[in-house]
Amino acid sequence: MLEKKREQREFMNKEDRLVWLMDEYGDDIARLAFSYTKQKQLSEDIAQEVFIKCYENLDQFRKESTYKTWLYRIAINLCKDKLRSWPFRNIVVTEFFGKTKSAGNSPELELAGKENKRVISEAILTLPVKYREVIILYYYEEMSYKHIADLLHIRLQTVKSRLHRARILLKKELEGSV
User: Fold this and answer.
1) What phi, psi does 7 have (nearest 5°)?
2) pLDDT for 64-74, tens place per residue?
3) What secondary structure letter does DSSP report for 101?
């Protein structure tokens, strides 16, 4: 079944494939961009740029990776370009992100859960980018160590050590905010 859907996508025209990619990965790309930029509007702009680049280069996609990995790589590169730009380095941001859905708990538990997510999100956003990106990709995007290593073009052991250091930094940050 999955193979049949994959074959159908390959026979889509360029515009239909782009629409499918945007529907399938648009929110994930925007969330990933937000984890880098910490700004909702800027992350949406970057997501839009990702799909513009995707459309321009869709015919050159070599299928050496999945579409998701390819789009994430484009998004990460665009985010890093933005982070290096002078205007971005001089902006203060206060937004946070969240991906998990509520489980239908009582209002009190919902509120407590939202507050916990907010505190954790803010703590994640204080991490340096190299630690923040592995936390986001591992916990929020549920990628494997190997997938993260391939995506970020770093060694598997580097992913593991960054994730370990990020957890330590997060623990210190969260203990300080209690």
Assistant:
1) -65, -40
2) 888 999 999 99
3) P
132 and 72 belong to one structural domain: no
Q: What does the alpha-carbon distance between residue 48 and residue 39 come to, in Å, rounded to a whole number?
A: 14
Cβ-count burial 18-51 (b if 16+ within 10 Å, e if not)? beebbeebbebbbbbbbbbbbbeebbbbbbebbb
Residue 18 structural domain: 2-89
Within 13 Å and on the Cβ side, how many CA atoms surround 111? 3
Cα–Cα distances in angstroms (integers) from residue 150 to residues 4, 112, 137, 147, in the given order: 27, 36, 12, 5
Residues 64 and 125 in one domain: no
Q: Is the pTM of this model over 0.85?
A: no
- Domain assignment present for residue 99? The answer is no
